[in-house]
Fold these 2 entries.
Entry 1:
Amino acid sequence: MSDKTNKKYLKKSEIITFGIGLFGVALMTGWMPDYTATFFADFAFKGKGFDSVVMGNAISMVFLIAGFIGAVCELVIGYLVDNTRTKFGKVMPWVGFGVVPLAVISMLVFVAPNTNSQTLAIIWMFVVYSLYTAFSCAVESPANCYGSLCSPNPSERSSAISIASFLRSVGQSGGMVVILVVGLIMKAVMGQQQFQNAEGQGLDLVISTAVCALGLILFTMIFFANNKENIPFTQEKVSLKDAVKVVFAHKNLLMVSLTKLFGFGRGVYGTVSLYIAIYLLGSKDLKLALLLPMGIGTAVGTLLVNLVLKKFSTKQTFILFCVYGASSLSILFLVSRGIGFNDGLIIPFLILNFFCGLQHGNTNVTPNIMIADCVDEIEYKTGKRQEGLAYAGYGLFSKIASAFTKGLGPWLLYTWSGYAVSTDANIAYAAQTDSALNKMLMIYTIIPAVFVILQGVPILFYDMVGEKKENITKALMERREAANKTGEEA
Amino acid sequence: MENNKKPFSLKVYAVALFVAIAVLLSVIVALTFKSKYVAFHPDEVARTYADTIVQTGDGYNAYKVSLLSLNEKYGDFIRQQYMYPVIYREAGYKPGDDTKDLKGYNDESYMGEKSKNDNGALQGQVIDTMYDYYVALAASGWDDYDRIFTSYFDKLVEVRKEVFGDDYITDEIMFTALESNVSTYGKTLTGTVDEFDENTGEQISFKSTGAYQTAYGEDYKFTASVKSENDISLDSYKAALDSGYLELVGTTADSIEEVKSYTVEVKDQNNNAVTSADIVVVRIGSSWYVDNSATDTSSLYGFYK
């Protein structure tokens, strides 16, 4: 690469604060879905005597509708971002100012109205969670977009995205730590039983949400105040028709987005993890122990990808990690079958779980770098820089894939595996047949492995790498320099 | 003309926004806590206590808003006062002793073959056997909790030994048996419905008619609400306090800053009063607790007969 393309645009502190910003956003968006579900189901209208079946169905609908709203919002926000022209840039205002309504609406999700009308309660859940979904899209998508605007230098940009992705993946689990600490403080201040009574009203969730919302503001403000966009936006306005075209008509961007759809079944292991802890490891308390090595593996994998990217192209890295991921899951399956479901399996299972987690670093980082490269390619071809829509397209496919995962996981576990439910009031979990246990193991290992391979298939058609990528980067820099000179002369 | 307009400072905006949101979130949390946290509302504490009892005949869980739960978790209170004396009987346990170095019947060396190999069936048999005993003890009221806990756990040890043939017993076994009996008793009052697992379609609960349904109709609904506040003087209340009881729950008369008495009335779905009880609540610090030693809840049990 030439000296021009090797020029550094980011201060070290900006790389860190980019990650801090994504950490803050992930702290909030990682906290909300699961804890909102439990708040709506168990605490929001406790003691109101509402029909539990109706409420259960309504809550499922709330999340389904929110999924659709989220998908639409991804496109709308992407379109709006690409039409934003301010002195702060095109994505930073969305992050810096959008966090205010996001923090407030997140808090309001956990402040249920005191109503005795079930209809009103259901309407409130739909409205407040849909608003949350819309505002979270308005902040999260632009925050992710910053990666492609932080530097014109692809290498520097990749490093920044890797570090930020690492901090984002840590932030996604931050809520679990927040609720743990909040619980400990409440116990110390209120005493054990009074804490339990407050917990019974969901008040620990209310406080934890406030802490996450404050964390969102603190960390995104650090990002907002310290970082600036280093790629000038192009002046052309984007029409809605163009917006949809961007997502579907650019081959490389479409291929990156399709990885989500092709690999949607990767996440079914989450559905079965509780049962793996119970039946294969012996206790449901081991669920955290089960997911922790995988979480650490994911964090390490996120950093590892950065090293691999220095030797290989994004395309090679992605495919390499797909092959590795499928292999590690297959080895976990074979080792588990070999040892059998007994105490001797616990340690090897947890160790192998760490190695299975490494592959997730790839899916956290590499597609984001690829999208940034696709944005360059689209700008090179069309003269328009459209980060917002590029990331929106990826987000749209992510949300559709997530909906499929949520449908497939329970079907595999409760129908396909032949899982037996306990009918004895004194026994929480019924004994399972060997066939059911083997199928549970497959849901955790082999089935995700197949989808890990499948997600690599679209990338075989991705070609924004090597000489092509280098030439486009160089051409864009020359184009921008020329534009600057023209601007100065004018 | 000179432009005096100050440029927008991102740092000032960031700090100001953080402070503003911190204040806003604090206010929202404080208001939510104040409105939701039962212990801040004396009338709601009294109502909750009566409501828990009347809905399922559950005096056991009602104590969670009483003085028994003042200084420690209600479950820990039961462990220390009633379970550990049974488990560590041979070691001479006294409430408050550290059990770390004590050997009790919860030691695995007391487990016989049946305990080691039980898949839940024998434990279920123990629970079923204990049920009639529980009903005889507690169906008419939980005000004398001391008698209920003491008698129930003594009997449980006896029944378990008959079924399993060993002395092994743990606090978990004790809680499981008692809470299962409390729950089953509640269902005999409320009735049950056919329930199917939503994933497998398997029936997990069968329809039965509860005693409340027999008395007030299948779609009965009880609503407990505070009917009136009664006069009660703090001085006369304190004068009548049992110092031994206060010591047991870990407080003193001086810590009690306020006392109130409420009549909680229970109405059925036709708005007819079915029963009522006077509940005494006291304020210690900023929280209110039911003084179960000064409250008679017998009218909340058996009113449907």
Entry 2:
Amino acid sequence: MGLQNIDRENVSVFRAVDWITVLLYLVLVTAGAVSIYAASYDFDNASIFDFNEFSGKQFLWIGLSMVIGCAILLLDYRVYETYAYPIYGCVILLLLVTIFAAPDIKGSRSWLVFGPVSLQPAEFGKFATALALAKLFNSYNFVLNQKMSNYFRALIIIFLPIILILMQRETGSALVYVSLIFVLYREGMSGMVLFSMLCAIAYFVVAVKFSEPLIMDIPAGEFSVLVLIAVIYCLMLLFYCRDIIIARNVVIGFVGTGLVMAVLAICGVTVNGLVYFISMFVLTSAYVLVAMFRHRIQKFVITVAFAATSIMFLFLVNYVFGNVLEPHQQMRIKVALGIEDDLRGAGYNVNQSKIAIGSGGLTGKGFLNGTQTKLKYVPEQHTDFIFCTIGEEEGFVGSTAVLLVFAALILRIIYLAERQRTPFGRVYAYCVVSFLIFHLCINIGMVIGLCPVIGIPLPFFSYGGSALWGFTFLLFILLRIDASRKERRD
Amino acid sequence: MRKDYNLSKRRYVIGGFLCLIVAIYIIRLFSLQVSDDKYKENADSNAFLRKIIYPARGLVYDRNGRLVVFNQPAYDVMLIPRDVKDFDTTALCDALEMTKEQLAEKWIDMKNPRKNPGYSTYTPQKLISHLSQEDYGRLQEKLYMFPGFFIQKRMVRQYAYNAAANVLGNIREVSGADVERDRYYRSGDYTGDLGVEKSYEKALRGKKGVEILMKDAHGRIKGKYENGIHDEAPVSGRNLTLSLDIELQKYGEQLMQNKIGAIVAIEPATGEVLALVTSPNYDPSLLVGKERGKNYKALVADKYKPLYDRAIQGAYPPGSTFKPTQGLIFLQEGIINLKTMYPCYHGYINGLRVGCHGHGSPLSLLPALQTSCNAFFCWGFKNMIDKRGTKVAEQFEKWKTYLVQMGYGYKLGIDLPGESRGFLPNAEYYSKSFRGPRWSANSVISVSIGQGEVLATPLQIANLGATIANRGFFYTPHVVKAVADTVIDAKYREKHQPKIKKEYYDDVAQGMRMAVLGGTCRAANLPGIEVCGKTGTAQNPHGKDHSVFMGFAPYHNPKIAIAVFVENAGFGATFGVPIGSLMMEKYLTGTISAARKGLEERMLNSNTILTSGVTKH
């Protein structure tokens, strides 16, 4: 491959680039610009090209991000692979410097200020971390499950930026990197880990959220979690251990004794739920462990251990929540889970954003006609709560469309990821997928009141140059790698 | 390679996870945006300040165009609880000239959800209503000291005459039940209470206007919403023209001073009520302003029940004023003709005795009306009910049907709230009270002379006068002659005609004329006006007899029909006739002739309450 080769490649890159992704990107960025214009529209005074306005500035950022996109595409794809670690190193250094150099803005030290321009280095950590992780997985004969040290190396790359960003007191941005667990999963990490994490989150939310009423002398949340554990236990016996007979017998055991308990309850005799469930788990586990000798031991032991761990986790949650956490911390969690209405604090934002979105109706109030966003009822409406403007002005139709375009983009990237010929391209693409899924789920979930309020932007929509450029870097490097996948000879 | 293949299948788990989340979010968006209206309302109350512009309530005039009820501004002290900061309570108390305790009481009342169902810390709440002009002036100067407070101008009613409170009614603040019944009202609005204020509420209240202003998250007004294209201008209430002659009404109330009872005067040709007097009455101005609550309580507690409109709510035994109806029925049924004579030996003596007074015997219908003979009508009733070859119950029902046609036993349908229907027994009623069909005319004979079970309102009796004056038809009596820009209800333009021939009405009218010329109603004989009348002396269990008069004038082409009821005042001739005749004279001539000034004086000054013999009201 000589100079000529590179020249030819530069010409053909625009032909080889995945135009579907580019199109989806442009759609989202345009919609984002329109939304910011609407969100910052003032009834008294408005001009698209006044750069003091949010929208004016955002148009400038968008223009510059196009230039960046083109520049990225024009660079040789090998640059990213070759310089992955140096880039990662530079960004880590930048994050470290930021902790000390950044001014304190509302308790957070994450913005570097250069005269009129502010930069948030955490947004650029994403593509650097993705590159480093991709580079690691691309190492010769690297198989994640081969050695524990491989996990260790991957986790160092992931947790280094998390720690630095936490030190900048930007919890939301730090949490984003946790989503890279999807990449580890795709590259061979046991599904049980992912599954356990999801279960842990579900147990925690359910157990804390429903403290009333009492069912079988224990809070409804605790009761529900125990039922959930029993259901997962049975499903694991059926699908994971693949033993229909044992699964059936255990189900019969639970359902039968459950009916007896219900009849007793009607007659006025209440058995303590904790006693009931624990004795049922002990009995059925004993049965399973005795019965399994006919089969492979490992999966049954895992299943029983999973149930036992789940119950212990439940006790732990109860203990930690009730005895370890301070009341104000409990309160914050309760507000986030929607148990307590705190309409003045964190609850205010979510309540107002629900009102704004809910008032949009099926087709919305029309462009620039949203009252809730125009009259500044929703705080942070041009940044983290930008989705409110879409919900209010474009209604159910518009907000669903935005969700679907996002889903289409992410699914498209998964498709791109799977067609890569090297682990480098694939891992990088899955990093992009993970970041986008996390941002989408948390941001929109927060705005519609399904997730706790974690301040992270909606990609391509939220106001801010750093976030837009960060995602542009992330996406266009992927496009560049993808465009050259056929030339690879590895 | 197989391992790799397995791992690449994990894209479906990741993609599936994404799709699941997106699906959940879309369902959530649907429930927020499409299936739940709560947020839309929240958004409106968030962003819009709907400033209500109150219309002027319709004015009320009497039949001669005299202004009776009009509006005057009053001032309410309002506040938005959320915006109220610490303030100097002493300064506020000084400005309002009230004690701290009174202020605290008002404050507690305002927050009491039962007294003020619409309480919210975000919306304007009324602390004190009806400030006087002076209080308003004082407070206005110091208002800057009380953030969150403001003054709202409202219109209250003013009355040009201290008269006709029972007809006019008044206005009060809406109750929680009103707001629930009619979505037009908001807490703090006014609505009509009693009288035409209530029955013509929809016409009088007009239509509230609204100005939609936008306010931002800090409550600052950001101008009109879409330049005011959604604003609505208020529509003033319609003016009413009463059929009452307010001067006649006032005169009637004066005549009824210190008496308990009612006067109803009707213009026969139209059914328009000229005067609707109930006594004791009250000054309508009592129920306006700050003192309304206190005065209202006092009126409710008053043992003479001034809020009880005896003219349309009082059900009295009609006494002898009922006799013309009997004559009409007997003539129509062919029981009697003008030559039919019945004996009267100081009463009806036929196994039982109904007393009567001295006059010639036997006698026919016209002299019987003239002298108010009880025996004649008892005989007629007996001959009708116990008619050979008929059943008692059927005959009684026939008798009752005529009376219902004449407006007895049911509400006439006057345009005022609370009308009583009086009472007419039916055959079933007697079969029940006599435990079987074994009753006859004699068992119930007293109904034929307007005693016993029969009860009628003064309005129904005046309506009988109007029907006789018209010689056989009437219009449903009504107190509102016209509602501006609309026609009155069709039911007040519909002629009602009892199934009795006009000639029999002529006969009865002649009998009533004779009663004035040489019978029981001689005191009603006005110079130059041919008055017809019928007295009544209604026995009742409370004390002395009620003094009753029913009549009309002139004999030909009558202009006024009247019923007078003076409770426990004795013979019809002593109070009923003079008061009725004075009312007629006043209405027809505009004055009282010199010869009758003495009579007028006596009526104005007499107090029948003292002599009523009633110990317990």
